[in-house]
From TrEMBL:
Protein's recorded name: Quinol monooxygenase YgiN
Keyword Kinase tagged: no
InterPro entries (UniProt xref): ABM_dom (IPR007138), AI-2_Isomerase_LsrG (IPR050744), Dimeric_a/b-barrel (IPR011008)
UniProt xrefs under Gene3D superfamilies: 3.30.70.100
The species this protein was found in: Thermocatellispora tengchongensis
Domain ABM intervals: 10-96
Keywords: Monooxygenase, Oxidoreductase
Origin: domain of life: Bacteria
Lineage of producing organism: Bacteria, Bacillati, Actinomycetota, Actinomycetes, Streptosporangiales
Pfam families: ABM (PF03992)
UniProt GO molecular function: monooxygenase activity
Length: 105
């Protein structure tokens, strides 16, 4: 008997605060992640928001931890993470967790 285990969707979300004078470049870098990330297998949602206080809020949902891990292993993400610190004021405020509400679809 073969059993099928449905993966649990995972979410990654957080705030990024640009250094003074770096908002435009940080916005450009973050926007450059949106479409390629949405096209990756296992991506369910990928959204970038800009807060009134100038912080950026990134929200991602992935079909499984394995899909998120594959995404993080791409050259796109590695290059982004290398360039990111020079544009941030402090460390990103990042949250991660398993999605407990049913994912529609």
């Amino acid at each position: 008997m073969t059993t099928s285990i449905t993966p649990t969707p995972v979410s990654l979300y957080g705030f990024l605060t640009p250094k003074p004078g770096h908002a435009d470049e940080l916005r450009r870098l973050l926007m450059g992640l949106v479409e390629p990330s949405r096209e990756r297998e296992g991506n369910l949602q990928y959204h970038l928001h800009e807060q009134e206080d100038g912080r950026f809020f990134l929200y991602e949902v992935w079909r499984s931890q394995e899909d998120l891990d594959r995404h993080h292993a791409t050259s796109l993400l590695r290059d982004f993470m290398t360039e990111l610190p020079q544009h941030l004021e402090g460390a990103p405020e990042v949250y991660f967790g398993a999605m407990r509400s049913p994912y529609p679809g």
